[in-house]
Amino acid sequence: MNAVAVSSVIAADPFLALHDSASWATLSKADRAQVNAWMSALDDYNNGLTGPGHCP
Q: What is the pLDDT along the chain (56 residues), one digit of tens a residue?
């Protein structure tokens, strides 16, 4: 299970409202780490590794 709970990914929405992929080079190391944590949490959820799993 990913250390970042999927419910914490809700914080990504306001962040992404202010940043896009062109912002990556200007993000702090901490912001980059946070974005990567959100990406991992969502990828795990989408692949059924966390959350309710895949539908039958």
A: 444 566 778 899 999 999 999 999 999 999 999 999 999 988 988 888 887 777 77
CA distance 15 to 9: 10
CB 40, CB 33: distance < 8 Å: no
Distance (Å, whole) CA 44 – CA 2: 7
Give φ, ψ of 28 to 5 degrees.
Answer: -70, 165
> Which one-letter amino acid corresponds to residue 37?
A
First to last CA, the chain: 20
What percent of the chain has a predicted confidence (pLDDT) above 70? 89
Could you tell me the pTM of the whole model?
Answer: 0.77
